[in-house]
Structure formats: structure tokens, C-alpha cells
Amino acid sequence: MVFICAKVKSMETVALAFIVLSAIMHALWNLLVKQSRDKTVFIWWMFLNSWILMTLVVLVRAEALPLTTELVWISAAAAVCFVLYHWLGGYAYRVGDLSVTYPLAQTSMLYVPVWGVLLLGEQLNVAGIIGIALIVVGAYGIQMRRLSWQDALYPLTCLQDRSVRAALLAGFIYSIGAVLDKSGVSAYPAFDFTYVLVFFMLLFMTLNLLRPSYRGRVVAEARHHPYLVLISGPVIMASFLSFRLGLSLAPVSYAVPVRQVSLLIGVAIGLLFLGETCGRIRLGFAALILLGVFFVWHG
Q1: Range of the domain at 207
Q2: Which of 19, 210, 259, 296 is most buried, by CB atoms within 10 Å?
């Protein structure tokens, strides 16, 4: 019994390590996107490079890709969710006030544990629930300008705003994608599912870039930031693959909130490398996220 408990705890630690690694890579690829000129086109380059790298692995390994109908439809459906999440989130951040729209886009963490329990049969204990709650509060408040009930509730008073509705919809759609993610890595190896998922995301992004307004911009971005484009592929591949490796070992109810540690890493990157100011509010809410991760791991 002691051996079994130790083995379970070891698997939980490995899952946490994969998810934290994913969070670090997620923060890094967001940093690369910030430094790009044409962000939509740059993200397309990131996915193209990561898919090429993964294709090389598929070609040289001994096992064949289990390209079943189930794998295709789960991956395609998840890809639709994540592309819509990026599109809606990008629209909300671009058009609306970031301090209002960003917290609402994080509402996926409220839905995911519900879907995990109701649809996937996951079980949450008290420590895990406390950890999720702390992470949700930290992610929601990290963009707040003042500590007040008025500021905390203000995003919920702007529901008539299109950017606010887009942010809320983005959070809901992401939660559906997360459930599909968990279903995919539970039925298939994490690498295989991630490979097909990235293919469909790249496909949908390519269809978007075929519009006349993007003519000439794809090559221009590669010429303007060739080194960023080159390193972006391995970074986003590491982010996507490490998260799904962790997700294959942990409940999605815990994995998605824990990945919000990327916000903490983003604060550190902004403070250390970008010269951004890190006020007490951001630092305090980032500490809440870290405390929440501690509770989830012990849960």
C-alpha cells in the first residue's frame, strides 16, 4: 500500500512538472508574439514550424500514427475550440479594456472542474478545491488596478459590451476544448493527439490567411523576424506537448487551473526582461496563484 501511494504521488509530481514546464513555454511564446510585428501571421509561423518538427518525429519513429476516425474528430473539434478561443480573446483584448476583458477570459477555470466532474467522472477533494479557488481569484485579479469591490465587480457590469461578451464566450469555448483535450490524451498517446491537434489548428489558421487582406504579409513577417520565427516552433511545440503529457497523468479539473502559473512567469519576465513595473496588486495575486498550485498538488 505504501508503495502504491508513493507511486501515485510520483505520477502527480511528474504531471505537475509537465504542466509547469508548459506554463513556462506558454509565457515564452507569448513573449515572442509580443515582439513580433504581424501577430496573426507570426502565430501561423509558430504552428507551421512546430508541426514540421513533429512531422519529422513521426517519420523517423517506428510506431505508425493511429489515425482513427475518433482521433480525427476529437482533434478537429478541439482545434475549432482553441482557434475560436484565440480569435475571440484577441478581439476582446484589442477592442476592449484589458483590465476588464482579461479576467473574464479566464472564466474557463470555473467551467472546467464542473465538466470534469459531470462529464469525465473526476473527483475533487477539499485541498484541490481550495487550490482551484485561489488560482481563479489570482488569475481574475492580476490585471486589477485597485483593490476594491467596485473594481472587482466592474467587468460583470459591462455585459452589454461586445468585447466583454467575446471574452466570456472565449472562456466558455476554451473549457469545452479542455474536455476534448482530456478525452484525446486519455484514448491516445499524448504526442499523437497533439500532432493531429496542431495539424487542424494550422489548417484553420491557413484558411484564415488565404483572405486577400493577408496577401504578402506571411513572407514579410518571416523576413522581418527570421530568428523569432525559427525559435518559435520548438517553444510552442514544447508548450503544447508538455501540457498534454501532464494532462494524460492528471485530472483536467486540476491541470487547466495549474497552468495559470504562466501568469506568474509572465509577471517575472515583464519585471526582469521587459522593464515593466510590478505593483503590489499583481505581485499579491501572482502569489495567490502559486499558493493555489501548492494546494492542488497536495490535493
Answers
A1: 2-298
A2: 19
